[in-house]
Design a protein that fits this description.
- The chain has 122 residues and is mainly β.
- The protein is built from 2 helices and 8 strands.
- A 4-stranded mixed β-sheet has the order 3-4-8-7. The chain has a two-stranded antiparallel sheet with strand order 1-2. Strands 5-6 form a two-stranded antiparallel ribbon.
- It starts with a strand and ends in a 6-residue tail after the last helix.
């Protein structure tokens, strides 16, 4: 398409910017959303994990015990630079994504069935 309008000697120039999808990060204005994959037992017990920022730095974060799938953890100032403001950044938001095991062996099934009888799992 042709996006120039000609009014006498004035040109209005429209620049179309296409943003490429990032495989790990989703954007909402200046905030970035990233999945934090946590295996189901770490989600139950709580754990410490690393989250990578968009510029490749690793941030350590604690996941509290019994965290729910979809819980959000905010990393202030780790999002995208805010256009027109020096050194002002949006936030990065980590979204807990609880991962299930692909398969279970007999021993694991036995242990989980015992656990299922315990008070807090009923």
């Amino acid at each position: 398409g042709h996006y120039m309008n000609y009014y006498g000697d004035d040109f209005d120039l429209f620049i179309i910017i296409k943003e490429l999808e990032h495989p790990k990060f989703n954007r909402s204005e200046n905030d970035l959303y990233v999945n934090i994959d946590v295996n189901v037992l770490d989600a139950i017990l709580g754990c410490e994990t690393n989250v990578e920022t968009i510029d490749g730095k690793k941030l350590s974060t604690k996941i509290k015990p019994c965290v729910e799938d979809g819980t959000m953890i905010r990393f202030n100032g780790k999002g995208l630079p805010i256009y027109g403001k020096d050194n002002v950044f949006g936030n990065m938001v980590g979204v807990i994504n609880i991962k299930m095991p692909n398969k279970l062996n007999d021993d694991e099934i036995k242990l989980l069935k015992e656990l299922k009888e315990k008070e807090n799992f009923k």
